[in-house]
Write a structure and sequence with these properties.
Number of strands: 4
CATH superfamily: Glutaredoxin
CATH class: Alpha Beta
Helix content: 40-55%
Mean pLDDT: 89
Structural class: alpha+beta
Number of helices: 6
CATH topology: Glutaredoxin
Low-confidence stretches: none
Strand order of the largest sheet: 2-1-3-4
Number of domains: 1
Distance between the termini: 54 Å
């Protein structure tokens, strides 16, 4: 099951949820402000992110600036506790499934969450459309072709 970590006022979060709804892909929403993330959830997010904290922590957040914190100086347990205490430092939305993570809304990257079978079907339909278009296109290779 895909888990989407969101916040109510986030427009990107709304776009992501709308996209999943339109694609009829089930997901579980987790509002990071109404329910604290668990240690296993945070560790999973960190583990799956390619660049660790750089991918998921907003260094421009008010909390980090005010407290003058360098998240790279924190131990794992300190980092987890810091995020639990200050969920606003997380970039949003964060989408996680068993194999991947995506942070933020990107209309191309989000397509990886479409199930493989449906992606294959979409590609086949696209190829059929291209073939049909090619069959409908007249190609003239002679100099005496009529011009349109």
């Amino acid at each position: 099951m895909i888990k989407i970590y969101t916040s109510p006022s986030c427009s990107s979060c709304r776009k992501v949820k709308q996209w999943f709804d339109e694609q009829q892909i089930p997901y579980e929403e987790h509002n990071i402000f109404s329910a604290s993330l668990s240690e296993p959830e945070l560790k999973e997010i960190l583990y799956k992110s390619e660049n660790g904290t750089d991918d998921i922590i907003s260094t421009r957040s008010k909390v980090i600036k005010e407290k003058n914190i360098d998240v790279n100086d924190l131990t794992m347990s300190e980092l987890v506790q810091f995020i639990k205490d200050n969920p606003s430092v997380l970039k949003r939305p964060i989408m996680v499934d068993t194999n991947r993570i995506q942070v933020g809304y990107n209309s191309e990257e989000i397509m990886t969450f479409i199930p493989r079978e449906r992606r294959a079907q979409m590609e086949a339909e696209l190829m059929m459309g291209v073939r049909q278009q090619n069959e409908d296109t007249e190609i003239c290779l002679d100099d005496d072709c009529p011009t349109k």
